[in-house]
Amino acid sequence: MPKVAAFFDLFFKGEPLERQAELIAECGYKYAETWKGADLDELKAMTSRDVKLVSVLVNGVTTKEYFPNDVNTRDAFLERVDKIADNALAVGCKQAIVTAGCQLNRKSYQEQRAVLVETLAKAGEMLKSRNFSINLETLNTDVNHAGYLLNDPTDTVAICKETGCPNVKMLYDIYHMGIMTGNLTDFLRFNIKHIGHFHMAAIPGRHEPKRGETNYPFLFGEIDKLGYEGYIGLEYMPLLPGRESLLETKEYLGI
Question: Of 15, 235, 248, 251, which residue is the catalytic one?
Answer without folding.
Answer: 235
